[in-house]
Amino acid sequence: MLQLREMEYAQAAKALGAGDTRILFRHIIPGTLGYLIVVASLAIPGYILAESGLSFLGLGIQEPSSSWGLLLSKAQQIGISAIKERPWLFIPGFFIFVSILTYNYLGDALRDALDPRAEH
C-alpha cells in the first residue's frame, strides 16, 4: 500500500486536490484488491487444516457440533474389523483433501488471472 501511495497516479490525484479518502478508494484499494483476493483464497486451506487438526486432537469443535476433524477422530476410535465393514467413516479425510486442493487451485488460478505482469 505504501508503494501504491507513492505511484505517479496517486501523486497526480493529490496534486489535483483529491482528498485522502478519494485517493484511497479510487487508487490504492483497487490496486491491492487482486492481492487480497489471492491471499485470502490461499489462506483458507490453512484454516481448514488447522480447524480439522485441532478438532481431531480434541482441542477444536466439540460435540454436539460437527467438523471434519471430529468425524475423523471418531472414525479412528473404531476397531480394524469395523473399518472393513464401514469404510465410509473415512470420507471426511477425502473431503478435507479435495477442499484444500480446490482452494489451492482456485488461488493459483486467481493469481494467474489477476497478475498484471503476466503475459496473456
UniProtKB/TrEMBL annotation:
Organism: Oceanithermus desulfurans NBRC 100063
Any one GO CC term of the record: plasma membrane
Membrane topology: Multi-pass membrane protein
Pfam families: BPD_transp_1 (PF00528)
Residues covered by the ABC transmembrane type-1 domain: 1-107
Subcellular location as annotated: Cell membrane
UniProt keywords, alphabetically: Cell membrane, Membrane, Transmembrane, Transmembrane helix, Transport
Domain of life of the organism encoding this protein: Bacteria
InterPro entries on file: BP-dependent_transpt_permease (IPR050366), MetI-like (IPR000515), MetI-like_sf (IPR035906)
Primary site of residence: membrane
Keyword Ribosomal protein: no
Protein name per the record: ABC transmembrane type-1 domain-containing protein
